[in-house]
Amino acid sequence: MDKAKSVETPLSISEKLSISEGKRLRPEDSTRYRSLVGALQYLTLTRPDIAFSVNKVCQFLHAPTTVHWSAVKRILRYVRGTIKHGLQIKRSSSMLVSAFSDADWTGDVDDRRSTGGFAVYLGANLVSWTARKQTTVSRSSTEAEYKALANATAELMWIQKLLTELRISHPPVARLWYDNLGATYLSANPVFHARTKHIEIDFHFVRERIAQKLLDIRFIGSGDQVADGFTKAISAAQLRKFRSNLNLVSG
User: Fold this and answer.
1) Would you say the pTM of this structure is higher than 0.85?
2) Beta bridge pairs of residue 119
3) Rg (Cα) of the chain, in Å, rounded?
4) What's the average model confidence in pLDDT over 87-100?
5) How many CB atoms lie within 10 A of CB 180?
């Protein structure tokens, strides 16, 4: 792969990886696949731009195929072309803990589970992020988005608790940016009906933080949603904007 041509994106936006596509790899190639994917998982600790693509290929560790192997090699080609990129940490006058949260409804073609992701900032600096397939199937986009919102809220609480233990002063109210009107209205209006009762636990968890005035949820347009790149494959132009929003720059 040292001499392989680099690519602009780690995953193709036109290809949906599936467990049934391609020919099963030989045992020795499967071992190599798992080894490379494991190494890429470590790389996501400093390269949030490949978090979604690495999470995707991790889902086939039990039965990788030639198609999945090609996807891993594409990620490596992308990393080769962006090898000098890294997170920039800069001085910030703000200590506000804020997050962007998003979800891609039924994005998995095999089990129709959604992928949720978030990006957490301390002031202007990215400090935590994730791209993860949800554990249950969501019956609506609002449900998928609300699960992602609850996960982001939990991470905000953890970051704030860590700062408190370190005796670092910060505003008590965290801010969460969201682009789903249904979930935003639901978080502000404590009224349930037949379509939302099955997500009451997540609802009450988030609603309690809002009622205690410890969480400020604000709506943001989909075009400005930073967490979008953690939920699906995006184009080269979108990826460049995504890297910029994450403070991921070339050294």
Assistant:
1) yes
2) 100, 129
3) 19
4) 95
5) 23
